[in-house]
Amino acid sequence: MDLITLLVVLFSLSWACFNFLRSNSSRRKLPPGPYPFPIIGNVLQLIGQMPHQSLTKLSKTYGPLISLKIGSQNIVVASSPEMAKEVLLTHDHVLSGRTVVAAMEAQNHNISSMPFLPVGDTWRKIRKICREQMFSTHQLDISEDLRREKLQKLREYVNECCVSGRAVRIEQAALTTTLSLLSSTLFSVDFGNHDSNSTLEYKEVIQGVVDTVSAPNLADFFPILKRFDPQGIKKRAEVHFEKLLGIFENIINQRLESRKNNTGGPKKKDMLEALLDIREGNEGYLSCSDIKHLLFVS
């Protein structure tokens, strides 16, 4: 063995020992959990169609707060109501930072999306808007009749299928009702019709976004692969995100034109109208791009 080969071997062994010690040191600061295998981490403990059941079994061994390693990423799982409260309420500011998955970086969505923004002025402003305009008790009370109406339509659709002997696709029926309720609440446009193909494109785009974002991505577990996008998930996300944001942009432009010309009847009382009022008011920190991404999150 020549000198250069010997130096390379010694350097490799030293680097491996350093990473091993650093990994053990970092794990001592984490909650208990199963010991990870090299490279893959705890992936084998979660393999299967129902990973939530695997997590339940692990919680019985390691407690309600578990640390796992998926690839090179450390993950902490809260598996009890008490621990979830600690994470989401008691220590929410400390633990509010989230890892941005590769798919969510499509169309720079992570830059304007409240769930992925770091805690700061922008995050607080957008959070305030969501709290006051979307999730307040007043807003929920206003939309109560709308929710009853959409559920009644779902009931009528299921009853028609029963009478005619048609099969009811539960997943599709639930998606249609959800889209109908959300689109009516957000911008007073009904994108859900159980027997119409007019909103097929919108449904396909939404389904494409959901499938892409929820797909397991190696680049999320091994960040070194993110720039290569080995499974093409980021590329597909770019396509679906662009289509959905384009739909929102058309709706926003139509509403702005309607407001400018005072057409379209009485002023609408939906989420888009409230966001445009904020944009045009004294709180001019909200751009049209921010509104598109807020509607996306909704």
Automatic annotation (TrEMBL):
A Pfam family of this chain: p450
One CC-aspect GO term: membrane
Keyword Metal-binding: yes
Signal peptide extent: 1-16
Single annotated GO MF: iron ion binding
Subcellular location as annotated: Membrane
Keywords linked to the UniProt accession: Heme, Iron, Membrane, Metal-binding, Monooxygenase, Oxidoreductase, Signal, Transmembrane, Transmembrane helix
InterPro entries to which the protein is assigned, alphabetical: Cyt_P450, Cyt_P450_E_grp-I, Cyt_P450_sf
Family stated for the protein in its record: Belongs to the cytochrome P450 family.
Record protein name field: Cytochrome P450
Species the sequence originates in: Buddleja alternifolia
